[in-house]
Amino acid sequence: MKENYLIPANAKKSQLILGFFTPLDLTLFGSGCGITILLLIIIQNATFTELIIIILPALITGFLVMPVMYYHNVLQFITNVVTYINNPKRYYWRGWCIYNDEVK
C-alpha cells in the first residue's frame, strides 16, 4: 500500500458515551432533569404557565446536549461561536498569486 490512511468520519464517536454524549453533557442534562423533577415534587397543583416554567430546566439542558450536524452538540456550537467572536484573528494571505511586497 502507498501509505495512504483513511480515517473514518465517525472516529471520535467511540470516545463518547452512547456515541453522542460526554460526561459533562450527561451531568448537565441530569442536573436539569433533577431540578425539574424536584420542582414537580415540591410544587403541587401548578397552573399551565407554572408547569412550563417548571419544565424549562429539562428543556433547556436537553436543547444544549442535542446532537447537531458537523458539531458535537448545540453547547459545543455555542462555545465555538463565542470563542470565535471573542478572539478575533487576522489572517494574512500568503499564496502563489500575491507578491509578498515585492514586484517582479
Per DSSP, the total helix count is: 3
Q: Please describe the biggest sheet, giving its number of strands, its sense, and whether it closes into a barrel.
A: none
What are the low-pLDDT stretches, counting only 5+ consecutive residues below 50? none
Encode the helix/strand succession as letters. HHH
Radius of gyration computed on alpha carbons: 23 Å
According to DSSP, the number of beta strands is 0
Helix amount: 40-55%
Return the average pLDDT rounded to an integer. Answer: 80
The 3D shape can be described as elongated
The assigned structural class equals mainly alpha
Distance between the termini: 43 Å
Structure, explained:
This protein is 48% helix and 0% strand. It is mostly helical and 104 residues long. The two termini are 43 Å apart. The mean pLDDT is 80.
Summarize the structure.
The chain is mainly α and about 100 residues long.
Structural topology:
Elements: H1 23-42, H2 48-64, H3 74-86
Quickly list its features.
104 residues
